[in-house]
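Trying the structure run again after the queue cleared.
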Amino acid sequence: MRDLSIRGAGNLLGAEQHGFINSVGFDLYSQMLKEAIDELKGEVKQESVSPVEINLQLDAYIPSLYITDSRQKIEMYKKFVAVSSLEDVDDLAEELLDRFGPVPKPVENLLTISRLRVYALKHHITEISQKNPDEIKLYLHPSQNNNIDGGALFALASNWNRRLGLSGGQQIVITVKVKGLREDEGVQLVEKLLRQFHLVRKDTSTESTVS
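Done. C-alpha cells:
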C-alpha cells in the first residue's frame, strides 16, 4: 500500500485512487473493484465471505528495487489478495523466490499478513488492528460467541505470560500485548495465537484445514 501510494500504478491504482484505497484498505478496495467489474459484465454476484480488515504498524509492500516492472508488481499484489490457504502463501513465496530472487523483509511481511488473513477467515475474525504500538486487537464476529469455549480461552491466555487480554460482550475481543517487542515480533506473536486458536473453538470440524 505504501509503495502504491508513493509511486502510483497507473490510473487504476495511481494518484486518482490511492487516497480512497488508504481509506478503505487494499483488501476491501480490491473486492469492491471486482464486484463493480462483475456488475458491469452482467455476472451474477455470488455470496462472498466478509473481508478481514488488517491494520498493522508494519512495513508490508513490494519494493521497486525487488520488482522493477509495474505490471509484474500489480500482478503480484493481485496474487497476495487472492490467497485463500496456507498452501497458496507457500506457493506465492516460492514463486517470488524463483522469479525475483531472495524475498526482502517488506515482502516477507506481506506473506505474514497473508497467513494472518487465512487464519482469520477460518476462525471468523473480522479485524486485526494495531491502533497503538503496544497492543494488537483481534475482533471475532459476534456470530461466533457461542462457538468459543470460554474456559479454554482463559486457559490459553494464562499460558501467555500476561501477553493476552480478553473482553466479552456482544463481540469477543482479544488483545495481544506487544510492548517491548519489535514490530515483526509482535505480528509473529499474533500468528502464533492464530495457529493455536482451534484449541478454543467448540466446532473443530475444520481444524485440520489449517495447521
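The first helix runs from residue 2 to 7. Worth checking whether this holds up in the mutant runs.
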